[in-house]
TrEMBL record:
Annotated organism of origin: Rhizoclosmatium globosum
PANTHER family: GAMETE ENRICHED GENE 10 PROTEIN-RELATED, TINY MACROCYSTS PROTEIN B-RELATED
Superkingdom in the source lineage: Eukaryota
Assigned keywords, A-Z: Membrane, Transmembrane, Transmembrane helix
The keyword Oxidoreductase is annotated on this UniProt entry: no
Family annotation (InterPro entries): Tiny_macrocysts_regulators
Protein name (record): Uncharacterized protein
Transmembrane feature ranges: 48-66, 78-100, 112-133, 153-174, 195-214, 254-277, 283-309
Amino acid sequence: MEISIAPVQDTLPEERYDEERVQNDLADSADDDGFFVATTFLERVREIVFSVMFFMVHGNATWTVFEYCALIIEDLQLVTFFISLEVSNAYLIPNGLLYSELDYAHMELKQFSVWFSLCVVAVFLMMANIVWVASGFVHGHHKVIWPIWTLRIFASILPTVLYLPILEVIVNPISCNRIDEGNFGTLATTPCSDLRRLPLTIVSVLAMAVYIPTSVTLTAVYVLVNLNQSSMFGVVLFYFPYYNPNVNFMRGGFFFGTALVGFVATYAAIAHAVTGVQQNQTIIYIMAGVYSFGLATGFKVSAMVYNYIQNEVQCRLVQVQDQVILKGEPIMKPDTLVFAYWTHVEIAARIATIHMDKRRQRVDETTIPHLIMIFKRGMEEFPEQSFLKLSYALYMFHMKALNRDARSRLGKLDQSKVPWDVKFQLYYINQLATQTKEADFLGPGIKLDITSYVENKKTDKDAKLNHYLAVQEMRSLWELLSDKQYTVVQNGVIPKSRG
């Protein structure tokens, strides 16, 4: 229940409370809500964006079956590019497979407008939801909690499972044939100059301008991969971005299978271009065979590479480790490289814990010294890689607690010039530490989810505000009571009589 503090009478000299000053005092407090510690406008904007992104993902867990189904659907969409109408001239595609993809370009304008409206409304609703939640951080509180839930739903579906379908729909109005004559009944035959197409084109440009950057940003931040330096399958083998190894193996299988299907489709397209003859359905059967082979092979190869990295690192650690113990820690020979690539450091560290998502649960205390040794050695061999320092702190937080060394490295990392995605990860771990500290303060057995966390922060700030106001009013009353010119009459403060 919110405490109501009545203001002091306007007749009191120079001791009226100033709520704006109290708000400023709260903002300057070191133990405030922890969101805004920025000093410049750009830093404040960054803090707001990071806060919204933190609330999008942290604790946003669903059923495991649903998550796996979403990943499978997302990866299967890649294969549909090779069984679409655009390539049907090169090889014969059964009608049953063609139905897996809607031909938006040859729909009637009214029918296409329905699909287009649904996609555009979803995109702009997500953006409006982001702005709404961000405004809550700007004002220091959230009036209601349900926008956070809807934003988490949008962030889980629109930039991932529905990214390609939505993008395909909103791109269609821009792809026009520029012909001023013909049948104007469908989108494909409607020229760019047609007034019926102009509103669709304008809305399409606006939707893509917000949808593509938002989706790419979320993917780049949440999955720490460098998509500019390797193929999709190479990314999985090099980074293994998901902590659950089975997800990496599964995606490796899907990507490798899709790549093999792409080779077969390329061969059929070249044969059609040379001979001018459409290939028969044998191409589809070959695609099905190589896709199944690619799924199994990609899964197996990913698992072999993953296990090889961990085993090879462990063997090298044993080879370079001296038997001399100093201050309880083994001394490592500095002249031998343990890690072939910097990504192998974090991959090797995963052997210390299997249940990374179970924070501070099922932790084997005996693995922590080995974990520290892996990261320290990795940071010695790759001192310029900021992700290693960040991963070290994350592992220490999830395994036990942030030790002094991890906190020191995080502090130095935060003060240095690091990429914005590293900045977000720094913000993420700081918020995790703050949330965990407050949950521990509430007592054992308390599970503070993200909405409860927001409500707790709002209640905490309201309580601090009321406490400041009460203290200020009591201070004003005490100073007035101690002044000889005033006395208390009928629960009020009036000047004393001078008669």
